[in-house]
Design goal:
about 300 residues, alpha/beta, Rossmann fold, 12 helices, elongated, disordered N terminus
């Protein structure tokens, strides 16, 4: 009898052709460089603020590698066993011998059950690993990656009851993402780990890419998408840290516009109210606590662009 605490890990097979992925010249340049680095045997690291498309890019690039994909989401509660594996159950064996009716023999043994976790599965089978927001995990949990990325060897605990190490499959590749600007629940990665990967620092998309993404995700007309993107980009320039609002705000706005049949026009009250609801929380209001300053910024920008 065996009792397992986790089920068998099933990888995801990403299609090379992903029609919903927008690939403008700006995006294609990033994708081409990423694939080149991965094929050269180096892990890549997409580093950028929220809304810069890190995870979408990572998923698309993973699909171009033509291998099954294993995804890990960073978590501060992770320890090494959450990546590599551990003893998650037991196997019990009981033999009853009653061949002679007056003699009863029993032999019972219990053996711990080892289960490989996502990192070990990816290394063993040559899958592509996507470690999303890896800096949310504690650095000591990620130390196991050092030998994997450099020496191509995975050190395994003795409890695995097999070889003490695993040679990483030659088809194994790794993609990491992180947000350097978040501070809640994020750890500074060890320099030795960053040194083993090629980091691509992502900024917000160019205007053409943001317009294409907004049109594709919402189904709105291109003129309306252009005005909304220009509105969001203009407000982004007014924000002190320059990181919000992102293209996600443009997608939210245009999806609501599509549903309500509103137009990107300063005279359309439905559009203006939607802008205030979505964008108000993303605009810094250091001068007034009641939010009136942020509201004023949004209304002035709407009048200027729409």
């Amino acid at each position: 009898m065996a009792i397992d605490a986790i089920s068998e890990i099933q990888p995801i097979m990403m299609a090379k052709e992903q029609p919903s992925f927008i690939q403008t010249p700006y995006v294609k340049d990033i994708v081409d460089r990423s694939i080149l680095y991965l094929k050269a045997g180096y892990p890549i690291h997409f580093c950028g603020a929220s809304g810069t498309g890190k995870t979408s890019l990572a998923m698309y690039v993973a699909g171009q590698m033509g291998r099954p994909l294993i995804i890990i989401h960073g978590d501060e509660e992770f320890v090494t066993s959450d990546l590599v594996g551990g003893e998650f159950g037991y196997r019990r064996k009981k033999v009853v011998d009653n061949f002679i009716h007056s003699v009863l023999k029993t032999d019972e043994s219990i053996q711990s059950k080892w289960m490989d976790n996502r990192l070990t599965v990816a290394c063993k089978n040559g899958f592509t690993l996507l470690y999303d927001e890896f800096t949310r995990s504690r650095p000591e949990a990620n130390n196991i990656l050092l030998s994997i990325l450099e020496e191509k060897i995975l050190d395994l605990p003795a409890a695995r009851d097999r070889e003490g190490y695993l040679k990483v499959h030659p088809d194994f590749s790794a993609i990491f993402t992180s947000n350097p600007l978040e501070y809640a629940g994020v750890y500074r990665s060890q320099d030795a780990l960053i040194d083993r990967m090629i980091t691509l620092k992502l900024n917000h998309y160019d205007r053409e890419t943001e317009v294409e993404i907004t049109c594709a995700k919402s189904g709105i007309s291109r003129p309306d998408a252009e005005r909304v993107v220009d509105l969001v980009r203009d407000l982004r320039g007014l924000v002190g840290d320059g990181n919000t609002p992102t293209v996600r705000a443009a997608i939210m706005l245009t999806r609501v516009m599509k549903l309500s049949r509103a137009e990107a026009n300063a005279q359309d009250n439905s559009f203006v109210q939607t802008c205030l609801d979505i964008l108000d929380s993303e605009i810094k209001d250091e001068d007034k606590t009641d939010g009136s300053h942020a509201k004023e910024k949004i209304l002035n920008t709407i009048k200027k662009i729409c």
